[in-house]
Amino acid sequence: MIKMKRICHLIFRLLFLLDGGVWSLRNLSISVPRAVLSGEGQSAVLRCSYDLEDAALYSIRWYRAETEFYRYVPREMPPTMVFPLPGASVDLTQSDYQQVRIVNLNRRLSGDYQCEVSADAPLFHTDIRSAPLTVVDPPFRAPHLSLSRDSYARGDILRANCSVDEAYPAPNITWILDDHKIAETVSWRTSDLDFKERGAFSRLEITILEAEHYKMGLTYTSASLSRAYQDNYYGYEKQPEKEDKEVLRYTLVPPPTGQFSLSCVATIYDIYARKSEPIPIREDAPHPASVTGEDSSGPLVSHSAVLVSLCACAVLLHTL
Ligand SMILES: *[C@@H]1O[C@H](CO)[C@@H](O)[C@H](O)[C@H]1NC(C)=O
Ligand SMILES: *[C@@H]1O[C@H](CO)[C@@H](O)[C@H](O)[C@H]1NC(C)=O
Ligand SMILES: *[C@@H]1O[C@H](CO)[C@@H](O)[C@H](O)[C@H]1NC(C)=O
Questions:
Q1: What are 12-63's pLDDT values in tens digits?
Q2: Fold of 20-136
Q3: Which CATH number fits domain 144-283: 3.30.70.20, 1.20.120.520, 3.40.50.970, 2.60.40.10?
């Protein structure tokens, strides 16, 4: 009986083909969140969209790192089949011919996910798409910021450290001066295949300029954001000397009030961001130059903070 049905189906299809019908699979695309949080109650919905034109769907299969974990074959009863996915489960109530929902993920399920769609007979046209998903174990606490001092005199260098607890993957660290991002330490070479948690660390040196530097006309631009790359693959603990090379350096003309605040933010993709307690930093004593009116009322000081980065200097010198 079933065989008969299949043959009829096939004949119908062949007639349709002769009739000029097309039943190819087109526009297959996969949509997977770049990152999701791990743990109980967390979930990821992976979608696959496609255009079968005049064909029927034969099957849709989902793989993680080449291992199939979900299959939907509308001709079968029941149409869904689930294979073990250690470290998570598939929510069958919200999985079908265009999406699969995975719940309670473990970070070891990070990796590439594939969706494979096959059109029905006679052509069984098949296509596959892949996208990465990272299951994030965020740091337990907010980043910790420490400063060499919380007041300064012109010409001083302020040193700051920001450290972040272990997490998967290693977080990036961004430095924020008042409301401006001024520098970033990017964690890279974190192998997606070893699922180790790693901490992150960033060092910043801020050189406080004398007021005369206003006259150079240097201003903060976002292009001056400097980055350091943290080699997390080998672990910074093993190569402490490497840290020194990765000090971020900033040059700052303090705002007229003499006060600014510094904080750091740990981020993991767009799914986790946590800021340290901001630390206010004041000028030691009123600046003597204010007597001449050159300090706080200088013509170029229109906003709260004028930040000058070494990068901007370099660019400027280069163009001269
Ligand atoms: C689908 O594919 C066709 C060509 O194969 C293209 O012209 C069309 O823009 C695509 N549609 C979408 C929604 O991507
Ligand atoms: C920052 O970290 C370095 C290296 O661990 C340490 O030598 C230095 O004293 C720290 N500085 C501050 C202000 O915490
Ligand atoms: C860190 O920043 C880099 C560069 O912007 C980005 O490619 C990477 O995905 C970020 N890593 C995390 C864990 O957010």
A1: 455 445 444 455 788 999 999 999 999 999 999 999 999 988 788 999 999 9
A2: Immunoglobulin-like (2.60.40)
A3: 2.60.40.10
With residue 241 as reference, give the H or E element that holds it. Answer: helix 240-245
CA 294/CA 314 separation, integer angstroms:
26
What tens digit of pLDDT does each residue of 277-314 get?
A: 999 999 987 655 544 444 444 333 333 333 333 334 34
| Atom of ligand 3 lying closest to residue 170 CA | 13
How far apart, in Å, do the first and last CA atoms of the chain sit? 85
Does residue 212 contact residue 177 with C-beta atoms inside 8 Å?
Answer: no
Residue tagged 């920001």 (tokens): 162
Beta strands in 73-156 (DSSP E): 80-82, 89-91, 99-103, 111-119, 126-136, 144-147, 151-152
Q: List the chain domain ranges.
A: 20-136, 144-283
Looking at ligand 1, which residue's alpha carbon is closest to its atom 14?
27
CB of 268 closer than 6 angstroms to any ligand 3 atom:
yes
What are the residues facing 62 on neighbouring strands?
70, 115
Residues touching ligand 1 (Cβ under 6 Å) are: 26-27, 51
Contact by Cβ (8 Å): 182, 307: yes
pLDDT band at 258 (very low <50, low <70, confident <90, very high): confident
Asked whether the domain spanning 144-283 has the same topology as the one spanning 20-136, the reply is: yes
- Ligand 1 atom with minimal separation from the 51 CA: 1
